[in-house]
Each structure stands twice: as structure tokens, then as C-alpha cells.
Specification:
mainly alpha; Hydantoin permease; four-stranded mixed β-sheet; 23 helices
Amino acid sequence: MKTQIETNGIVTLVPEVSAEMEGSPLWNEDLRPTTTEEHSWKGFNFAALWIGMCLCIPTYTMASGMISLGMNWYQAIFTIFLGNIIVLIPILLNSHAGTKFGIPYPVFARLWFGSKGAHIPAMARAIVAAGWFGINAWIGAGAIDTLLSASFSFWQALPGHTAIVFALFWLLNVGIAYRGPEAIKVLSAIAAPVLAISAIILLIWAFTTAGGLGPMLSAPSKFTSTGEFLKYFFPALTGVIAFWATMALNIPDFCRYAKNQKAQVVAQSFSLPLTMGVFSFIGIAVTSATLVIFGEALWDPVLLLAKFPPFVIFLGTLVIVISSITINVGANVVAPARAIENLYPQRITFAMGAIITGLFAILMQPWYIMSNFGNYIFGWLGTYGALLGPIDGIAIADYWIVRRRRMALKELYMPDGRYSYTSGFNMNGVYALIIGVAIPMLGLFIPPLRFMWDNAWTFGLFISIIAYVYLMRGDKSILSKEEYETITETRTDTGTSGAIVDTEVAQ
């Protein structure tokens, strides 16, 4: 029986099967596969998506922090550009699955971890998002605290003034998130362009104050040898990769709407590295200029903001607050809140999930992460990269090597289907994840193996690929080519008159 239709590389469920699946506990409007009509995103949509996500304060801090780490401007640019090219590979590989089968990340995860085991990668993604929630709240609160200190002489003498601002700003973020992403629809439309314009103004200020581009970029590297540079380069590179390792996992959430594979591949291949490269250059150039202007590398925009007059601090605070709230509610609440909600849908609502996310963000201690760039790049980005690298590897191995891009779409939504494995858990995926995390961690305890931890995302990815492919050999959940053809009706859209040809009949 045909349960799915493949038209020009896009697979959708047969209408009768969709109607049948609506009663499944694994099916709802957020998780169901997209229809042919919903595959409407063109290249422009993906370019706009990445430009909007790249233009954020954390991008600036990551780039500018490379200078405070001791790199010169071209070493920093090279590290960031290379890291984004590397992470683009798993992004595109996982995008293919979302585009072809129209499934979101939590459903994609059922393939490799099982219908219940999918909570494991979903919660891993949620924990990281909660951490970013805390970091953005801390950045926004720091800007407000700086403004109050510059405006009111008594404020800086008030005990715990920074903690007070953080608590209030945290409540504001959680309150908006409680009402859902729709609450910031207007802010979302203006946040990215406002930040882009502000960054250009900041670059112009740095250019004129430092005395031109030459002095701006004259800060030398503190590394006196290649070996000394590489000691910092590889952990920094892992941090850059980890910056978008979350999107490498849940990119199917967006690519499930792609019109075709070409639209998402071309747009993402250009928009991610180019936008990150340009915006990172601004952060790097401005931070290099602060070495000339102030005698120290100010990588945190809040610390830089404190050097300006009160009116400029006010405008800068407004920009940072808008950016922090927008990216928090739009990017850092939905994923963890949905994951928490999905743990117990009958009792936990999205609003409750948003509150829990906010509480977890506090436990992540964003003030410690942002206290210096070493904590940010080596502690935060490096550590969660060690967790997400193996999950990225398992996703790639499952779809491209184990299943060879073939799956039974209907059975992803069946509690007793082939992707439920044993009691809803694919233990092969769990074992591969443990192996992929544990082996690089040896570098924390065995000095000669330190290079494995410094490159934990990369080692974890390849180790988990090898482990998963080995463990899944001959698994009964794998569809053969013949089985796939049995359940799939293949059609070709001519793209001219709109007629659709059934190639099975035509042949």
C-alpha cells in the first residue's frame, strides 16, 4: 500500500494516511509533516532567516572576544570564517532531511533515538537554549545597569544594584515569553536592522577615533609562535562551531518549508558565512580599536558602552535591550519550552515551560560565563559543543549512511511503529551518544589527550558516526530500497502547466 508520495524529491503523506494519523498521540499541528503547499520557502526566506539570527549581540561578543584572547584581526576572522564553513556542513546535511520529508527536529530525532528517546536530544537542545536565555538576559541587564549608573549618582552605590536589574529584566523576559513569541512580532521586525545600523555607526566611531583603518587593525597578536597560537586556536574554533551547533540540529524546523533542496542549500551556503564574516569583522575591528583608544580590548559591548556619554549610553542600552528580548523570546525560549511541555503534555503548558526555562537560565550562572572571554569560549561554547557534536554525528550517520535517505513517514507517528524500537528507545543511539561524549572527555583528565577535548565537537561527531553505524548494522528499522518503493508513489511535477506525471505509470 502506498502511504507517501515523492514529487521532485519532496515526500508528503497520502491524504488518507494524514487523516488516519490525526488520532495518534505522536501527531499534532506542530509536529505533522508539511504538505506540498507548505513547501513555499524560497532562497530569500532562508537568507533573511540567517541574517536575522547572525545579527545579535552574542555574535559580536564571540568575534570581539578573539581579540581579547590575544589574536590579531586576521587570525580572528580566519578562525570565525573557518568555524562557520565547518558547521555549515552538518547544517546542510540535516537540512536535506527536513526538506525532503517535511519533518521538524523532534520528529527527526525519533529516527535515531526512538519515539520516547527523542526527548534526550530535544532536552539537550533545550538546555543549551536556556543557557543562551540567561546570557542574553545578563547582557541586557548589564546595559540597563550601565545606563542607571551613568544617569543617577546614587545607583552605583546601591548594594546589589546589578542583581536587582538582572532580576527585573529576567522577569520582563519571562513575562513576554509567557505570552508566546507573538508578543514580540513587531520587535522582531526591527531588531536586526536596528542592530545592523548601530554596528555600522559603532564602526564609523572606531574608524574616526582610532585614526583610520590602519591604527584600528594594528593590534598585534600576542602569540610568538605557531604552537602558542594553535593552543588557543583549536578551542576557539570549537567554540565558533558550537555557536551554531544548535541550529545544525534543529534546522529541519525551518527547512521543512523549503520549496526544494536547491533553495535552501544555495541560500544557506552564502548567507551564514557571509553575514557572520561581515558582522564579526565589525566586532573585531571595534575591539581592536579599543586597544588603541583605551589601552585595553573591550570585548563586552556593555563595558564599551560605559565609556560613552549618558545620551549615547541610553541609545546603546535601547538597542541591546531590544536585541536581547527579541532573540531570547524568538530563539531561546520556544525550543526549551516546547521540549519541557512535551515531557508531560497533559500537565505542562507552553507558559509553564517558559517559566521553567527562565529558572534554568539562572542556574546556568550567566554572570560567571560572561565574567571573562575564557569562560565564554572555553567553558560555555566548548562544553556544550562536546554534547551537541555527537548528536549531530548520530543524525548525519542515521539519515545519510544507515538509512540512505529512506524512511517510512507514517511510522514516525505510530507509537508501535518501526521507529519505536524497544519501549520507545533506540539504545544504539543512546550508546553512540555516550561513547561520543565520553572519549573526548578523556582529554580533561589525561594531559596528552587534551587535544581531543579542545576539539570535542569534531571528535565527538566522528566518533559517534562510527559508533552509530556499527551499532545499527542490520537493524530491523532500516528500510530497503524495495520496501521504500513499495510504500512510495513517485511523481514528477513538470513545472509548466502544473500537471503531475506518475512516473511509475509512465514507465
